[in-house]
């Protein structure tokens, strides 16, 4: 067992304390299941019936143990005015809000959410987490999902996505459900479109990759225009790499707010939600990688195919992994949730 018994128990103590109101239900007996495997990792899922039990069973076989059912933004809203971002203290980005929070504060190691118009990728990035969406993660989820109109009147069908603090956890989860192969391959990625001035650290020996730079649309552009841009880009290139964020730090990227006049529109565009909110709408596979700046990162997008997850993960490995010792040390201290307080005896 890679994680100590006491640490596993602490995760459940925090889930039961529910300091961010992000947990809807905790399964304390996950502790028993975790002791049966070598490398247990706790999982939280968004409270959505789109997420099938078959996905959880596949993950369970690889040591991913269901630990919590997570709160979500009401009505699939892009901002969650009931939950608080544990880093900024502002309203949490939606709609897989509780799932992302529970990963950031180390209640869970893997979060499973649903994404219609950025509802996995954006909450992940708002907390400097990794996020992946792809229809290949669960065929059953695709068949179970119901199409509906977004708040800005665009038809969408939600898909499943993963959230984690590190890329390896997402890779392990993808491997456990069979969407990537364990052996290293050299799948062809020849044409990469990169947002202008974004540095992509492709190794010099990667002669099969050709990078083209181009100016991308900003957050003032309507979502329909972003959809048209990304569709064309994915027809012309194998992979598209863009800047994202800072998410909901300087504004609130929410259509319910943004439709109410020019000042509200400025507030919405200052939420800096770019192509991440249309990845699912063009049936693509997308992976967000956090940067060292709050709420910022990059998005790697490719057409959904049997090998699309492997493609975005391959490109992701060129980028420096995100780590933040302060975030990890602060949110893993049990005493911030259970302070000893006045009157506790001195031992």
UniProtKB/TrEMBL annotation:
It holds the Pfam family Amidase. Residues 84-211 form the Amidase domain. It comes from the Bacteria. InterPro entries: Amidase_dom (IPR023631), AS_sf (IPR036928). This is Amidase family protein.
